[in-house]
């Protein structure tokens, strides 16, 4: 039947196969894009567990943190939550410095974010040291004037991570009283670059407020102050990483442990977001991914279904033109199932041939199509472009849908063709 129609009307067969191939190829690409996008977001936001910030304070009317000072818990709070909550393996004190500008080698730069913390900070956010040394507990105890910066920042300031080690960075000075009469002086402190860590993805950086520059939070303690009092005062905000528990479960566990150790009337707020407070960025990003995936997948399915209507058209014409032949076959003993199977196998052959061509097209066009889509994806466009390719599951699903649509649309005319009275159909001709 396929060869007969190819000889009779090759243009129609070619157009039908082309339509099915195009629909299959587009569906493969759309399913692959949505799967890759979902994996990129999930791997960057969820792969390292649940990350939550906890502060001793309340939310003000503008949704900002109104922190209690002095803190109602002390500097041992992070150690307590690690030891008492099984799902929490890492917790780090967070201090937001009062500056967003630095000077190095006689040039000034604006910082996106800087964070005072401890060695656990790098564990919470899975930040690997790629050059220099890691932050140590001794750096915290001594209040060392050191900084750790991202590889991106090291390249921008010094050309490479290796060149950044040992360089000096100056935050803005602060005014203090010195000498007789309390004369105000601008005190400038130099920080040495001790290490460079891997640059986090833009998604995780924005989602969690990861610092481009990290320093021991004890480096902010002025000399002559009561160190323990300052440590307790600065411990009012910390970040934890929880594995094997949801955000709600971790929040409840934090509240229970902190209140049992420091009193049931203390103020505790816990949120998923950045150092500045709750953020809708992650929710908006996930919603955008879901909307994108649903939209492109529906578009791909509709296109494949529409392209498969060519098979339906061919089968309708075939069933109408062969009514007498079908009646004669049935008169000679052919069953309805045999006739239907003949039409069905032909429609499946057309669908399979078109799907195979569609697979080949998708493999050829995968890179250019995915790369053309990447600018629309904002922060994850770079990683999406680098990882773009065809997902095996998308290929299998698209081919299965092509065969399903083709089979069903080819079956409907066949069921209609075998109905009716055999004798009357023969007499009509």
Structure description:
The structure is a single chain. This protein has 429 residues and is of the alpha+beta class. The chain folds into 2 domains: 189 residues, no CATH class; 198 residues, no CATH class. The chain is 54% helix and 17% strand. It contains 16 helices and 18 strands. Strands 7, 8, 9, 10, 13 and 14 form a 6-stranded mixed β-sheet that branches. Helix 2 crosses helix 13 and helix 11 packs parallel to helix 15. The radius of gyration is 33 Å and the shape is elongated. The chain starts with a helix and ends with a helix. About 1% of the residues have low confidence.
Unreliable segments (pLDDT under 50, ≥5 consecutive)? 175-180
What structural category characterises the helix and strand content?
alpha+beta
Number of domains: 2
Put simply, the count of helices is 16
Share of helical residues: 40-55%
Sum up the overall morphology in one term: elongated
Cα-based radius of gyration, to the nearest Å:
33 Å
Give the strand tally. 18
Q: Roughly how many Å apart are the termini?
A: 22 Å
Strand content: 15-25%
Mean residue pLDDT: 81
């Amino acid at each position: 039947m396929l060869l007969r129609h190819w000889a009779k009307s090759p243009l129609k067969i070619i157009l039908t196969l082309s339509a099915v191939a195009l629909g299959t190829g587009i569906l493969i690409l759309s399913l692959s894009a949505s799967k890759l996008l979902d994996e990129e977001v999930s791997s960057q936001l969820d792969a390292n567990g649940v990350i939550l910030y906890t502060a001793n304070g309340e939310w003000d009317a503008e949704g900002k943190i109104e922190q209690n000072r002095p803190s109602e818990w002390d500097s041992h709070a992070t150690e307590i939550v690690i030891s008492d909550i099984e799902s929490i393996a890492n917790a780090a004190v967070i201090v937001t410095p009062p500056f967003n500008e630095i000077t190095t080698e006689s040039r000034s730069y604006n910082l996106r974010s800087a964070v005072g913390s401890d060695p656990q900070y790098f564990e919470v956010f899975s930040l690997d040291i790629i050059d220099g040394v890691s932050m140590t507990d001794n750096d915290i105890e001594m209040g060392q004037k050191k900084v750790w910066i991202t590889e991106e920042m090291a390249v921008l300031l010094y050309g490479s991570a290796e060149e950044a080690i040992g360089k000096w960075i100056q935050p803005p000075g602060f005014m203090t009283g010195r000498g007789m009469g309390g004369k105000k002086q601008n005190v400038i402190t130099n920080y040495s670059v001790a290490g460079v860590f891997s640059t986090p993805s833009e998604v995780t950086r924005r989602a969690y407020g990861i610092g481009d520059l990290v320093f021991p939070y004890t480096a902010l303690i002025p000399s002559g102050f009561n160190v323990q009092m300052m440590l307790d005062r600065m411990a009012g905000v910390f970040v934890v990483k929880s594995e094997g528990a949801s955000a709600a479960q971790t929040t409840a566990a934090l509240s229970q442990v902190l209140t049992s150790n420091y009193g049931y009337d203390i103020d505790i707020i816990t949120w998923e977001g950045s150092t500045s407070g709750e953020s809708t960025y992650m929710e908006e990003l996930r919603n955008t991914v879901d909307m994108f995936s649903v939209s492109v997948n529906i578009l791909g399915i509709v296109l494949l279904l529409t392209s498969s209507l060519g098979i339906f058209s061919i089968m309708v014409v075939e069933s109408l033109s062969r009514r007498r032949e079908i009646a004669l076959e049935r008169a000679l003993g052919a069953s309805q199932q045999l006739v239907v199977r003949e039409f069905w196998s032909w429609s499946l052959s057309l669908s399979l041939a078109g799907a195979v061509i569609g697979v080949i097209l998708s493999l050829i066009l995968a890179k250019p199509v995915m790369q053309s889509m990447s600018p629309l994806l904002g922060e994850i466009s770079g990683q999406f472009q680098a990882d773009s390719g065809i997902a095996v599951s998308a290929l299998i699903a698209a081919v299965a849908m092509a065969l399903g649509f083709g089979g069903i649309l080819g079956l409907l005319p066949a069921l209609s063709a075998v109905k009716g009275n055999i004798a009357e159909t023969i007499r009509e001709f």
